[in-house]
Design goal:
8-stranded antiparallel barrel, 5 helices, 7-stranded antiparallel sheet, about 15% helix, 60s Ribosomal Protein L30, Chain: A, 21 strands, mainly beta, single chain, Jelly Rolls
Length: about 400
């Protein structure tokens, strides 16, 4: 991207929304599920980056020029899983122009010890040329780290492509405790300063001219970014288990714009003074609008989760400090289910927020609630992380 935001091509991760991961996808190898890419052998780059194999983008991964064999991806799952299936997807690979470019022999290595040790081979699988196939994994395929070795392709001498990798399974034990997100990260868009208070996360980049605000479940962060222009969008990021590496994707105008990633600085630099810089009051003053990624609901319902309280209290405090302010609460969903169902669910969720505020003494005359279902997406609905970002609540100032 350009300097417009991280501005024209990459980013991170997370936007919390209406369901907070309530409508979960069965695939555990996605950013929205908390899986992240730690390392890889090489890539063609551009629209063929390695992250595409788990971010569900329309394009996939392509090897570096002249390196079609023995490539690898190292993935970290959110916790230990017993994996039952693995899906290798070559659908959309450029077989018509580059015959034999599809990945063929893929080795699966798993570890429950660490990202750099304890690996054992779970099997070798043949991915279909230009197609998609789900494979059963041996019983007892436990993994928190998954290494996929793309040994060869179907005959192309220069490149190998793999569009997507998915896995299904069930978690084993409880998720591990996560380090705090607070810190400064040296990212592909410069220094990103983040500060965590409970579940809420604020931050800044570009010396403070860009801000982010959202919420976290400890590992994944969903945020709204804003930059002078004004330009805004959504970002979803995943923090690795050591707390050292952030990786994710960002969206602008509802479309995937790129990846945003970086390592935690051992001696963090100060990017800006975060006090008030990315708070709700500042966001509403700047644009009259804010995405509330910290508002979460029980799965497929309009029942507010207790983790929503911090964000709800922020809204109540803003309303009490500005007695003339009137706001509209707007609910949104992803594209799963019917239009009628999504509009009704999003409306009931917006009304639940309105009801909570009135219980705090905010006059209902200052509030409206509307549900917009899948309309006005902030990300694509073709990917798990895009759907996660689209499930959200927003507030707008009424005039």
């Amino acid at each position: 991207m350009t300097r417009r935001f991280v501005a024209g091509a990459l980013a991170l991760v997370l936007c919390l929304a209406l369901t907070a991961r309530a409508q979960k996808d069965s695939n555990v190898l996605s950013l929205s599920a908390g899986t992240t890419l730690l390392a890889y052998s090489g890539e063609y780059g551009g629209g063929w980056s390695t992250l595409n194999v788990i971010d569900g983008a329309n394009s996939g991964w392509c090897s570096a020029d002249g390196s079609p064999n023995n490539n690898y991806f190292l993935l970290e799952l959110p916790q230990k899983f017993e994996l039952s299936t693995l899906t290798l997807d070559n659908t959309g690979s450029q077989e018509s122009g580059y015959p034999g470019i599809s990945a063929r022999s893929v080795e699966v290595w798993v570890s429950t010890t660490a990202s750099d040790t304890g690996f054992r081979k779970a099997g070798t699988f043949e991915a279909p040329k230009g197609g998609r196939q789900k494979f059963s994994l041996p019983a007892g395929t436990d993994a928190q780290w998954l290494k996929l070795v793309v040994a060869n392709n179907w005959g192309h001498a220069q490149y190998t492509e793999l569009m997507k990798v998915e896995a299904e399974g069930h978690p084993v034990g409880s998720p591990p405790a996560r380090p705090p997100i607070s810190g400064t990260y040296d990212t592909n868009y410069g220094a990103l300063q983040l500060e965590q208070h409970g579940t809420l996360v604020t931050g800044c980049y570009y010396s403070g001219s860009g801000t982010v605000s959202g919420a976290t479940d400890g590992r994944t962060v969903d945020m709204e970014w804003a930059q002078a222009g004004p330009h805004t969008g959504s970002v979803l990021m995943v923090l690795d288990s050591k707390g050292d590496f952030l990786n994710g994707v960002w969206y602008e105008n509802g479309s995937l714009a790129g990846a945003w990633f970086g390592k935690r600085e051992a001696n963090p630099t100060k990017v800006c003074d975060l006090a008030g810089a990315t708070g709700l009051e500042a966001r509403m003053k700047g644009s009259g609008h804010a995405i509330l990624y910290g508002i979460r609901f029980r799965s497929d319902s309009a029942e507010l989760g207790s983790e929503s309280n911090a964000t709800l209290l922020q809204i109540a405090a803003l309303m009490k400090s500005q007695p003339q302010l009137r706001i509209g609460v707007e609910g949104f969903t992803d594209s799963t289910n019917t239009d009628a169902y999504n509009v009704d669910l999003s409306r009931r969720r917006a009304q639940a927020v309105l009801a909570w505020l009135t219980q705090q003494g905010i006059s209902s005359a200052r509030l409206t609630a509307q549900g917009f279902g899948k309309s006005r997406p902030v990300a694509d609905n073709a990917t798990p992380q895009g759907r996660a970002l689209n499930r959200r609540v927003e507030i707008v100032a009424l005039h």
